[in-house]
């Protein structure tokens, strides 16, 4: 089927508008859509929930929630009340503007009430993915100086609160909670709290959300976003996700990752859309069922998920009514042309690739419904955004030259700081003009960008970003491991898988049992998605004279490529 013959909606944002605004869009136009345009005082939770609750959308469903044991829905009015109750409870225990409140729990309606309530008191939300194990949880709570944690009894054993002196309160979300010491009963306190709350109005540059993400060196870093990001969450939900009044929208990402907040909370609700949240694990059957049950019209997911659906076979799809789907988009890793063609075949719909990252806070380079897509390309920059390919000095390269994908500093949802690490923040920019993404890409003569790979050693596995350093640090804590080097190995479904090269300590011998034991060690200590799928033992690992493992040599070994310049390698 030809792309042009598609009957799907082309979106309200037309090509002429795009071309007119490209590179020159004035963001103050978007500010005028919000009540704070004149006062300058803002709160995203007001704009995303209360504004609709006080309007004709009051009884519109804001949240549809489903998992194996729950099936619930909440209107904007109910979301306003629940989040007000959370805000009252937080205020009562002394949470103030700028405090960090972390949420570590599986998806559930309470997670969303908690995030919105935190924002209403002016505090900063720190979402943690439920799969994190103790070391990962501790690093993040410690670095951020979190004052409050909202979690479940099941996950509590992964929270080493005796080692976290700044953590003052832990809310437990569950049944029959005994309040004692720092433990508080979330549900009971919320039920007893008032449904009215005076929102804390903050400045547009005040902290909103802190997402920890991985780089190739050092511990995970806390990427801070501010309330001003809402301008871009709103505008991209309109232009890129093409959300309209009657849409039923489903973003499959967990709020532990930036996609699950920017486009699982802010974007859709700023637009007043009905938002579907499905808890539990991925399965092709339950995903297709969810689309049918809710009549999902706009769907935002990731290449790994699409590839898994693709490998589940096209016969399965025929059992479901997926005819409501109007618009599909993808983020997180390269979207193979193969997947785009599959989407056209089975959904009669194009999957629109979008490019952005935790640090950018919102979509930047995208395929728009109004535009011809080039399968394999990430698309074109959002109006108001200047993207370029620059060399290592920050000089712009011409079309087709491969280099660093960079964005001109100052877009509304740009990270405002790296928590406790201003030096690292500064190091992300070149010439004080370009934010350098760490991705390499080129631009073609039509202005479409084409992803080529990471410049650094960051691993993208199933759309999740894993820092090799974090995995290596965990590996060497195992008694049998002397040295470890970790790389991403290309994989047809997951994009990359994590592969570890390990040199064992004296007295240990390689065996399948040891491999399994080491894998479990990382799984239990860090997170399941961070555990190496493959482990290979070597007598010695390639290192620089200063003792750094040379991952590029490991990668060359793995891929049978030339190892390149070895002048810095030790003997
Ligand atoms: O390498 C790029 C890849 O994901 C990285 C950002 O990861 P994270 O901060 O976890 O955010 C993921 C979702 C916003 C990028 O540096 N990436 C993201 N989108 C794409 C992509 N790679 C290729 N194509 C994309 N569309």
Question: Helix and strand layout, with pairings?
Answer:
Elements: H1 15-21, H2 28-31, H3 36-39, E1 41-42, H4 44-53, E2 61-66, E3 71-75, H5 76-92, E4 100-104, H6 109-120, E5 124-128, H7 134-144, E6 148-151, E7 169-172, E8 183-185, H8 186-192, E9 202-203, E10 207-213, E11 221-226, H9 230-239, E12 248-251, H10 259-270, E13 274-278, H11 284-294, E14 298-301, H12 303-311, H13 314-317, E15 327-330, H14 337-347, E16 351-355, E17 365-366, E18 380-381, E19 387-390, E20 403-408, E21 417-418, H15 422-426, E22 429-430, E23 434-443, E24 449-454, E25 459-461, E26 464-466, H16 468-475, E27 481-491, E28 495-504, H17 512-525, E29 534-537, H18 551-559
The protein binds adenosine-5'-monophosphate-propyl ester (PRX).
Short structural description:
This is acetate--CoA ligase. With 571 residues, the chain is of the alpha/beta class.
Features:
binds adenosine-5'-monophosphate-propyl ester; five-stranded parallel β-sheet; globular; disordered N terminus; alpha/beta; nucleotide-binding; 571 residues; nine-stranded mixed β-sheet; 18 helices; 24% strand
Structure description:
The chain is of the alpha/beta class and 571 residues long. The protein is built from 18 helices and 29 strands. It has a nine-stranded mixed sheet with strand order 3-2-13-12-14-15-16-17-18, sandwiched between helices. Strands 5-4-6-7-8 form a five-stranded parallel sheet, sandwiched between helices. The longest helix is centred in the N-terminal third of the chain and has 17 residues, at 76-92. The radius of gyration is 24 Å and the shape is globular. It binds adenosine-5'-monophosphate-propyl ester. Adenosine-5'-monophosphate-propyl ester is lined by residues 213, 258-259, 331-335, 353-358, 378, 437-439, 451, 454, 460, 465.
């Amino acid at each position: 089927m030809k792309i042009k013959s598609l009957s799907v909606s082309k979106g309200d944002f037309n090509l002429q508008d795009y071309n007119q605004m490209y590179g020159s869009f004035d963001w103050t136009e978007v500010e005028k859509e919000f009540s704070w345009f004149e006062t300058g005082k803002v709160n995203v939770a007001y704009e995303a929930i209360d504004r609709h609750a006080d309007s004709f959308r009051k009884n519109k469903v804001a949240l549809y929630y489903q998992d194996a044991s729950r099936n619930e829905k909440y209107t904007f009015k109910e979301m306003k009340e629940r989040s007000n109750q959370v805000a009252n409870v937080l205020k009562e225990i002394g949470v103030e503007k700028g405090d960090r409140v972390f949420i570590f729990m599986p998806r559930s309606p309470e997670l969303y009430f908690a995030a919105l309530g935190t924002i209403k008191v002016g505090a900063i939300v720190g979402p943690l993915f439920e799969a994190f194990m103790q070391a990962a949880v501790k690093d993040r709570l410690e670095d951020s100086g979190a004052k409050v944690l909202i979690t479940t009894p099941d996950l509590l054993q992964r929270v080493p609160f005796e080692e976290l002196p700044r953590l003052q309160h832990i809310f437990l979300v569950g049944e029959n909670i005994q309040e004692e010491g720092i433990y508080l009963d979330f549900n009971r306190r919320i039920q007893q709290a008032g449904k009215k709350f005076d929102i804390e109005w903050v400045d547009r540059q005040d902290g909103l959300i802190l997402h920890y993400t991985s780089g190739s060196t050092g511990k995970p870093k806390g990427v801070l976003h501010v309330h001003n990001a809402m301008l871009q969450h709103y505008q991209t939900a309109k232009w890129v996700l093409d959300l309209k009044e009657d849409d039923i929208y489903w973003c499959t990402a967990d709020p532990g990752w930036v996609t699950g907040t920017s486009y699982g909370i802010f974007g859709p609700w700023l637009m007043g859309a009905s938002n579907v949240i499905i808890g539990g694990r991925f399965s092709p059957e339950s995903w297709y069922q969810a689309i049918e049950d809710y009549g999902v019209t706009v769907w935002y997911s990731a290449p790994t998920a699409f590839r898994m659906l693709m490998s589940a076979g096209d016969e399965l799809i025929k059992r479901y009514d997926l005819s409501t789907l109007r618009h599909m988009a993808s983020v997180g890793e390269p979207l193979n042309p193969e997947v785009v063609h599959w989407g056209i075949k089975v959904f009669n719909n194009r999957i629109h690739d979008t490019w952005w990252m935790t640090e950018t806070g919102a979509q930047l380079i995208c395929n728009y419904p109004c535009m011809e897509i080039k399968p394999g390309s990430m698309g074109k920059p959002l109006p108001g955004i200047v993207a370029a390919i620059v060399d290592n000095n920050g000089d712009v390269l011409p079309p087709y030259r491969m280099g660093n994908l960079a964005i001109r500093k100052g877009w509304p949802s740009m990270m405002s700081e790296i928590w406790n690490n201003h030096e690292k923040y500064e190091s992300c920019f070149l010439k004080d003009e370009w934010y350098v993404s760490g991705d390499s890409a080129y631009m073609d003569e039509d202005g479409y960008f084409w992803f080529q790979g990471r410049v650094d050693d960051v691993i993208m596995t199933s759309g999740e970003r894993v820092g090799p350093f974090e995995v290596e640090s965990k590996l060497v804590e195992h008694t049998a491991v002397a040295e470890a080097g970790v790389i991403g190995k290309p994989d047809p479904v997951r994009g990359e898988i994590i592969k570890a090269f390990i040199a064992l300590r004296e007295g240990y011998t390689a065996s399948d049992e040891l491999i399994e034991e080491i894998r479990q060690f990382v799984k239990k200590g860090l997170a399941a998605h961070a555990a190496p799928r493959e482990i290979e033992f070597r007598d010695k690992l390639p290192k620089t004279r200063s003792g750094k493992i040379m991952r590029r040599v490991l990668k060359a070994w793995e891929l049978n490529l030339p190892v390149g310049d070895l002048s810095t390698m030790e003997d």
